[in-house]
């Protein structure tokens, strides 16, 4: 990758990733609706609203690979999700196609499959069970990435991201946590793997408590350096008592419980 663009560059995950990708690629083009803090001299900022195709196309000009982190990163009203995560993601892939971009790393989410129970270990090819409008937007992005890969030859990797942080902070995140170094490694694999067509992998570290079967990531060369179990004793000692039964049962946690009106016992009996 000679030139890499990162969208959503002012966001939390980008803050972890930017210095690592700058070191790997020597420079980085970064984009958001606002200027990120602490820009490195090797970073070039291009303002772009994902809902504006012309602005996204300009940001993609001359780019080889994209790490697409942009959009609304939590649950929100439908209009917000629609513009930032549905229209915005379409604009990103269409701009990439028009500008001849070779690779796109799409930041999907564990919330694309949040309505699986915590006692089930799931592979990437399970039927999606999004737990929110946000989760639905990530399923849409995964599908859009597959279409652009197979119809237009754009190499795409969708990362179902758990939680990026220096360390896990609660019991749920002992299962889904990924360190900044490990997610940077996955981005590099997606950008650099020869002949990549379309892949979906879980962006988690080497976690003993993981809910995900991630063999495909390992087959592509992923070798996580971090383990959530190193922090388990401290995390569990400070864990609060169990809260909402829906949030505690499903992998998506509070995203599953928010606005919940179904018959929980009836649906749980079907799992």
Number of continuous helical runs: 11
Could you state the order of secondary-structure elements as H and E?
A: EHEEHEHEHEEHEHEHHHHH
Helix content: 25-40%
Average pLDDT rating: 96
Largest sheet: number of strands, sense, barrel closure: 7 strands, parallel
Assign an overall shape.
globular
As a whole number of angstroms, the C-alpha radius of gyration is 18 Å
Helix/strand-derived class?
alpha/beta
Distance N terminus to C terminus?
43 Å
Proportion of residues in β-strands: 15-25%
Strand order of the largest sheet: 3-2-1-4-5-6-9
Uncertain regions spanning at least 5 consecutive residues: none
Assembly state of the chains shown: single chain
| Number of beta strands | 9
Write a structural description.
By secondary structure, the chain is an alpha/beta fold. 39% of the residues lie in helices and 15% in strands. It has 11 helices and 9 strands. Strands 3-2-1-4-5-6-9 form a 7-stranded parallel sheet, sandwiched between helices. A two-stranded parallel ribbon has the order 7-8. Helix 5 links the parallel strand 7 and strand 8. Helix 1 packs across helix 6 and helix 2 packs across helix 3. The protein is globular and about 50 Å long.
Helices and strands, with pairings:
Blueprint lengths: L3 E4 L4 H14 L2 E5 L10 E5 L5 H8 L4 E4 L9 H21 L4 E7 L23 H20 L2 E7 L1 E2 L6 H6 E2 L1 H13 L5 E6 L11 H5 L12 H6 L7 H5 L4 H4 L6 H5 L3
Parallel strand pairs: 1-2, 1-4, 2-3, 4-5, 5-6, 6-9, 7-8
Helix pairs in contact: 1-6, 2-3, 3-4
Q: Can you give keywords for this protein?
A:
271 residues, alpha/beta, 7-stranded parallel β-sheet, two-stranded parallel sheet, 9 strands, 39% helix
